[in-house]
Amino acid sequence: MIYKMTRRAALAGVASVAMIAAGATSALAEGWKPQKPIEMVIMAGQGGGADRLARLFQSIIQKENLASMPVLPVNKGGGSGAEALRYLKDSEGDAHKIMATLNSYYTTPLRTDIGVDIEEFTPIARMALDTFVLWVNADSDIQTLDDYVAAVKASGGEWKMGGTGTGQEDSLVTAMLEKEFDIKVTYVPFKGGGDVAKNLVGGHIDSTVNNPSEALGFYQAGKVRPIVAFTPNRIDVFPDTPTATELGHDIVYWMQRSFVAPKDMPAEAVAYYTEMFQKLSETEEWQTYTKDKALMADFLTGDELQAYFLEERNKHAAILADMEGDGSS
Amino acid sequence: MDTLALLADGFATSLSPLNLMIVILGVTAGLFIGAMPGLGSVNGVAIVLPLTFIVPPSSAIILLAAIYYGAMYGGAISSILLGIPGASTAVATTFDGRPMAQQGKAGLALIAAAVASFIGGTLSVVLFTLFAVPLADLALAFGPAEEFALVLMAFTTFVGLGGDDVLKTIVMICLGLVLSTVGLDLISGQPRLIFGDLPGFFSGISFLVLAIGVYGIGEILYTLETSRTAPQVTPARITLKELSAGMRAMNRLWKTMSLGSFLGFFVGMLPAAGATPAALMAYGIARSTSKEPHTFGKGNIEGVAAPETANNAASTGSLLPMLTLGIPGSPTTALLLGGMVMWGLMPGPMLFIEQPDFVWGLISSLYTANFAAVAINIALIPLFVWALRMPFTVLCAIVIVLCIVGGFAPSQKMHDVWLIAGFGVAGYLLRKADYPLAPLVLALVLGPLMEKSFRQTLIAEQGNVLAFIERPLSGTFIALAALFFVLPLVKYLRKGGSRSIAPAE
Amino acid sequence: MLVADRVIAIAIMALSAYFMWHATELPIGWNGMTGGPGGGAFPFWLSLVMLLAAGGIFVRSLGEDHGGQSFFDGVMLKSVISVVIALFATIALIPVAGAYIAIPLFMFWYVRIFGRHSWFLTGCLALGTPVFLFFFFEVTLKILLPKGFTEPLFFPLYAMFF
């Protein structure tokens, strides 16, 4: 499910959520500005995809002068983002903290009881949706999804699928694949997407589900081959790679890249940050980046974003329940 | 030689007056950042990265390289002067650097570190220039099994047979390994050993926290008790005579240093390993091949030179997988990688073909930065040595404040500061009871690498333990590890076994 | 010395047991399904080794004579304890009153009261340290230190330097 929003609608969404939050008090104060540096909490450790993206945002904000105070990235990646979520929960009402999220925003509170309800947080803006592609080593004979399924079946459960950890996005896609095709793979977790891609090229694992940005360098060097994309439409960078949907298998999965704020952030601050990210999403740097890295720039704010989060949380709850039902963790 | 022409072009840019200014500025800033316990090249690079949008890209790379190298040199300064490793790569430097400082030879140790770093940096840049592209394939051949074997080898070169109390050494290794498992279990994705569900433990216990605790706070408490009011170190002076004596001493160490450089470069090149195991292995090998291993850990200049060449060579080596494969080997190279993406470059196998100007510009900047770093470092040694001459109570107060702030800075959590205080008191008591602290710290650094790669291999090989021996590369490393383990044992038995050959604290 | 050795050995044994108990939350055996040991295996078995080694140290100490030397130097122990207390008090104060109150207070205590240095030196250090910390960490490195209730006082400084 994708939301296409016009800019006006987005702003209206912001305004409405701001009004609700502000209650009967002052109208949108145009003049609110951060009084101290803004802390950008990152739900992942240094060097990962999420971290790199957050730092890209920081650089663009600084370069284009989108905020009056510096934005300072702080990594709190512990426990698949549990640390960051707890930190945000403890910062109720803080107007100088925002958090860059990924899908562990839903999965972490679902998998471990950390006393965080994401419904309480204030949604700011969704910047993009990242895509997933199934990859094999370019030396293998596998060309199509059918070849792939046949190869996995022939291996008798010894097919090595690399990923970034049980409960992470790619492991969910792997679980969906296993369910859809009635296959069984050995899931080998690695420290990050780059490490996964390297091990595929080095022949230590047989296939991966990577973000395009993580495997693109190897793809251009002709070392890895995309088999199928888990998007509704073909990805521009890989025009010859079919989507799962087009082959008759309903597997679509996104990684969202959004920003949220603590519970009860003042409405004026919410409006300020929303506008900042709105401007950011229109910069040329961001537009080029999304195109190059096969990201779907899909800007969304306010109530719609919150509704999106909650819907995604339900979807993930179902996927996780499925995975645990299989006993394959 | 195409490469040489490209490199010459690179030098032409990096030697322009503006860029030279940038190098000097960057190196000096890097030195001070690296010398601060808790801060390292990551912090320096993170600050500068957003600025690189504003200055021209060629200058931006030079600035980044200068900060990177400056911080690598700086790490040794806090290891030697304060005994607190500023980064995990500088742990091995404390083993002999600290005793040297206590004997009043801080200046000599600092010179040794600077010269060794320079040689390590130089040799590794040469290796990089000649073999960067073919070596990328070697990095690819490294899977989890090879990683495990390599870390095991690093462990055994170092631990060998402890001359310290064997039982106490075992306790400390186990404690370090257990502490390293705190946090999230990568394989199952479940949290473990998060005592009382404290969110601070979710991210595990970082090396810096333990090192600042036991080496910083613990050391101060220990000296406070044992030294009464006397200063902890013999006042150090630095003269030209000492300088030339230092240079002569370094001259004899060329074998250790070239070995350290090669080792550092190759180990640093492997994405999972990096500079820390490289430095430890260089130290371990220097000790076990030395004619007088018992002088190690008591202020042997070779024990400073070996790890310092290796860790600087490794910092060049770690750029290799980042540039050729797009895989960062350390948080710092991860940030550099991010920077490259922002400049619109695509790190990976095509970079050397499509962006040669960038690659060789970076290499030549590294070389210029290396040169500037050694010069500035040596020029500043009198200043650093002077700092040691402060009254003990003043120095202590400053070091404690630096420990608090330096412990807070990387993670920005008070939780870590509390841990530092706790580890400080525990480290003080353990040290008094003759428990060796080095194995504890090393185990914490190497533990996560070891467990992760061990379990990854077994999962991928369906639980087949023989996989470690069957694969040629990992089999070789395992054999070497066994050799390193047995070698000191043989020596020990032959000598009648009274002498300590483990690093003394 | 011997008593302290035993007490530390027992403390380590207790700690190991506690770790082992914690580690059992995850599978500690050889996990046949995924191949290789489970998530709790490393901490559990290593803690067991630690427990046994510490036990060995304890048993060994029983066979030793009482060496006359005591573990602590009585006179200096007092100063160690006072530094530890000052350290913990400073850390506890940081989240409440901020680093810029807690750290100068610590400096003042250490240099003036503990170290008995001159007022001039004390003043320089107690005032110089926060200024250095502010410019080095906050302005240059952009790492914000905790400010506690002193936060609003820094708003004008932020406006000036950022």
TrEMBL record, chain A:
Residues annotated as signal peptide: 1-29
Name of the molecule in the record: Tricarboxylate transporter
Matches recorded under InterPro entries: BUG, Bug_dom1
UniProtKB keywords: Signal
Assigned protein family: Belongs to the UPF0065 (bug) family.
Keyword Signal belongs to the record: yes
Keyword presence, Signal: yes
Pfam family, one: TctC
From TrEMBL, chain B:
InterPro entries: DUF112_TM (IPR002823)
Annotated Pfam families: TctA (PF01970)
UniProt domain DUF112: residue ranges: 20-442
Transmembrane segments: 20-39, 46-69, 75-95, 107-133, 139-162, 169-189, 201-222, 262-286, 325-346, 358-386, 392-410, 473-490
Stretches assigned to coiled coil: none
Record bears the keyword Membrane: yes
Listed PANTHER family: BLR4373 PROTEIN, TRICARBOXYLIC TRANSPORT PROTEIN
Protein name: Tricarboxylate transporter
From TrEMBL, chain C:
Signal peptide residue numbers: none
Listed transmembrane segments: 7-24, 44-62, 83-111, 117-137
Keywords in alphabetical order: Membrane, Transmembrane, Transmembrane helix
Coiled-coil residue windows: none
Domain DUF1468: 7-146
Protein name: DUF1468 domain-containing protein
Organism the protein comes from: Marivita geojedonensis
Pfam families assigned: TctB
